């Protein structure tokens, strides 16, 4: 790809300055890249969540495009309605046949993995031509740090607090990207703000896909992960190096891993800087550290096996 | 009604400085609630968080569900397993719960739901006050049924009324609601939690007769059928379909008549036992201010000012909102010039006051669309108007 970061800065921003995100939040980084990956006009539906709240409440309204806030559980249904109507109007000739519009829905892990999963599954099964972007920060950050089904094993959350009787969340993360890929949609991928070019390429493929596309982007969250906000991108890279958040894409059913660390780092390096895992380093919780490493290894090994042979 | 011994592990006896949300969690634990299924939503999340933190030390289950639909349904399951169960929510979550609130009513399942109200409709004002779900709680699910709803005006009452809500829910086998609001939910005040042996908690009416004779929907003398616990060896069949005493679906007009009358009558005919309100200086009042929740505290300032101005004002604070104390309003309507009803909505409970007053005295609404409480001056203006 001939895309350079310098070139991207020349494209007009659709999510502009003035929003109210936390210092070091991953959301604007992610969406500023994704929204530049198409030149067509975009209309988006946004589920309730940090992205919606922090970019909209006047005077922090930061959207330079058509944008609908639906409720918490139904961004995918909302955009499905818009897209279906667009097709109908095009058929009737009320929208010129060569007019290209991109449809997009976005939500956090709460609005996507949990409450919005039914709507998302329905919309992609029906084959609406839209891109769904989940910014997955592993937690309900908008309401102050409750666990979600994306919260990783061992993390502490306000509704799953670590303490005298708990070493953090005892369930692993729901593997949403694979669930979406299992809908046999044209394109599903995992991305990270640590690799902007990879993210850009994936967004471009998603917008170009003929049918529903799904992007699951790890979103760094200094507020709820509890780390020094300046180290966010380094932390996101650590997740890649430790294979905690593998970068991969599933194109027409074929798995391709986009980043393989030369030397796989121990998961400890990823856990240590984050306050939400602090309890794991206390006496008696070493078993959880082992369980996390085992879980990460298993997922990575499975992914390697699923990857389509490069030659084919 | 059998009194239950309170499990002291759930009771944090002493004086505390708590907000209303936390007080609801403590009230539930004191009442013996050991099952909480919930979903985060402002301004109610603190109750769930408190529960999640306390439950490992008290013993019981806290589950965060994938949405509010699942939360209510999990309560129904836990309740049929014999547990006292609760959840907490606010506007949008409350709307999602509606189908299964109807299911709980139809299945005559005791569950408790607290709604810390915020401004609506839709996402509305997530962090700011409203009292706009007062009719929704009564009429929100489809079909004819009745529920019980209480409205606390302080963190202390959040504690007390949560215990009450469990007692009523268990007694009448009906979904019972704590209709509080963002102001009371987030207000910190002194909350006194009594010793465990001073707390009155009601035990569910368990069936102990022969197994083959158990009928989950056969009304007892007090109209309330007995319950059994799943896993205790009794067989039960329960459903959201119109059903007979056995709980088996019978889809005809006769059975529908029997079920619907029962769901309504068990509350209506016990209404006088259920209803609680607080009255002050209504004896010779020209005007009675009817209010509830945070608004009753704001209205009190207006009442003081009106009394200073020489107007005879009484107050009636609704503690039980549903069933509505229509008998008392009817009596007062014969004596007063008018009612003044301030509420943080565009006119909801005022319709009930109007209905009960039946034209004998007008009900003057002082609406506030939410986001903040009334200015007492606006209520005072209405009182002066009413006294003319």
Q: What is the count of helical runs of chain A? A: 12
CATH class label of the largest domain in chain B: Alpha Beta
Number of strands of chain A: 10
- The number of distinct β-strands of chain B equals 17
Question: Quick check: average pLDDT of chain A?
Answer: 95
- Please, what is the oligomeric state? heterodimer
CATH superfamily caption of chain A: Thiamin diphosphate (ThDP)-binding fold, Pyr/PP domains
Give the SSE string of chain A: HHEHEHEHHEEEHEHEHHEEHH
**What structural category arises from helix and sheet content of chain A?**
alpha/beta
Defining traits:
heterodimer; A: 312 residues; alpha/beta; Rossmann fold; 8-stranded mixed beta sheet; two-stranded antiparallel ribbon; B: 388 residues; 2 domains; 5-stranded mixed beta sheet; 13 helices; 21% strand
Short description:
In chain A, 36% of the residues lie in helices and 14% in strands. By secondary structure, chain A is an alpha/beta fold.
Protein model, in words:
- The complex is a heterodimer of chains A (312) and B (388).
- Chain A is of the alpha/beta class and 312 residues long.
- Chain A is 36% helix and 14% strand.
- In chain A, the strands form two sheets. Chain A has an eight-stranded mixed β-sheet with strand order 2-1-3-4-8-7-9-10, sandwiched between helices. Chain A has a two-stranded antiparallel ribbon with strand order 5-6.
- In chain A, strand 1 (42-46), helix 3 (50-56) and strand 2 (66-69) form a beta-alpha-beta unit.
- In chain A, helix 4 packs parallel to helix 6.
- Chain A is globular, with a radius of gyration of 19 Å.
- In chain A, 49% of the residues are buried.
- The mean pLDDT of chain A is 95.
- In chain B, helix 4 (91-106) links the parallel strand 5 (85-89) and strand 6 (112-119).
- Chain B folds into two domains: 3-202, Rossmann fold, CATH 3.40.50.970; 276-387, Rossmann fold (3-Layer(aba) Sandwich), CATH 3.40.50.
- In chain B, helix 11 (326-333) crosses helix 12.
- In chain B, 38% of the residues lie in helices and 21% in strands.
- Chain B has 13 helices and 17 strands.
- In chain B, strands 3, 4, 5, 6, 7, 8, 9 and 15 form an eight-stranded mixed β-sheet that branches.
- At the A-B interface, strand 6 of A face helix 2 of B.
